[in-house]
Amino acid sequence: MPKLPVDPSLAKIREAADKFGIRQLWLVGGAVRDQLLGLETTPDFDLAIGGSAQDFAAYLYKTGVSSITPVTYPQFGTAMVRVDQLQIELAQLRKESYRSKSRKPIVEPATLEEDAARRDITINALYLDLWTGEVVDPTGHGLADMASRILRTPREPSVTFNEDPLRMMRVIRFRWQFGLTPVERLYESIKDCSARLSIISLERIRDELCKMMVGPAPDKALEDLRQLGLLAQFAPEFLDMLDVEQGSFHHLDVWYHTLAAVRLTEPDLVLRLAALFHDIGKPPTRTVEDTGRTRFFGHEVVGAKMTAQVMRRLKFANDTIDEVCLLVRNHMRLGSSPNLTKPALRRLMRDLGDELPRLFSLVEADSKACKPGLPLVDVNTIRERVKEITLTTPAAKLQSPLDGEEIMRLTGLPQGQKVGEIKRRLEEAVLDGDLGPDDTEAARALVKKWAQNR
User: Fold this and answer.
1) In order of start, what are the domains of the chain with their CATH numbers?
2) N or C: which end of the chain has fewer CB within 10 A?
3) pLDDT digits over 135-154, tens only?
């Protein structure tokens, strides 16, 4: 069996375990897998112990090894501690059984082999003995599957997936993250069990989806989710995109065009989510003219509303929802050429703010995902023109030179809608280039003129 070095923080836990009387102490999961694969490991340690996780966590805090009061989950036999600023989860070696319609397990102490059998895939069921540094493979398949890049569950797939249906999404994520080949009937079992994903919390589903989206092959993972019936459980709106023909500018239907756009983006979560959602409004807005031309009038506006609905359902943070919806709503804004006027570019800068670089990336991916041979949107030229405008008029200054209080003083108007209208007119003058963003004198003159005319 291979041997691996033990992290200094885990060595401190090992010393405390010796004094506490724990003899079974294992590092398990991704940290072991990634070290064996020669990948950079993240400070995300899961420890399996032969004893009470709650009692040992309390001891670690009492002796100063852990810097926080333990966060315990008695139902699952786990506890969270912090050692050297690293968050470490302790879990008693355990086996679990589930009721048919519940995700809440019945937990019992178990052997190492029983603990390994309850994990999602074999390459995640490798254990590093913190006493000896030796890697142990209780399922008998983990090391061989890692060497051969095989994707396998420790037990029959239907048993693994019925216990925790989120494992179906994790299997798909790990397949494309590590380039694994599923064993025979593994994917068929996911399809058979897909409806059981409905018992999983939407927050857990969202977290797995986000990990897929920033992975090396998000388009392939999404297609697996669709084909195997998992996408239908939490975002059925995407299924309507399949087989929606888009006309002469596209060689792919809406769904496969979307996957191509996702594939062409950088691994940035907001950007990739925007690519995923950017055409979700096309199915309900599709029309075919008498000439045979296919149109999707207002699909970006409808799509932004649908994006917000789906993302709220999945419990995304409000800031993330706002960022993605802004990109979806504006992804048609650049048109098909760089010949945007300076006022149009200033308005673009004002409306997009810090999200403008992401919009450029989204438009590039969207354009490249269209039919080969068509002219691409010249995003680079637009980028350069925005840089030129920014040198003379930074985006932060694309607003009225006067605030509401000064407008009220100049006009004698009370606070209200009319003051807001004047302020917006001043901002429009700045955007049109008729008024300098710092030219307060000219702004005052305009306000006085408008007041006299009124």
Assistant:
1) 8-148 (3.30.460.10), 163-228 (1.10.110.30), 235-397 (1.10.3210), 404-453 (no CATH)
2) C
3) 999 999 999 999 999 999 99
